[in-house]
Amino acid sequence: MAIVRKSNIFDPRSQDLFKLSRTKLENFMRCPRCFYLDRRLGVSEPSMPSFTLNIAVDHLLKKEFDIHRAQGVAHPLMQQYGVDAVPFVHPQLDVWRENFVGIQYHHKPTNFIFFGAVDDIWVNPQGELHIVDYKATSKDGAVEFGDSIWHDAYKRQMEIYEWLLRHNGFEVSDISYFVYVNGKRDRKAFDGKLEFDVTVFPYEGDDGWVEGKLIEAHDCLMKDALPSAAPTCEYCQYRDAANRVFTPFQPVAKKHQAKLFE
Question: What does the alpha-carbon distance between residue 61 and residue 134 come to, in Å, rounded to a whole number?
Answer without folding.
Answer: 8
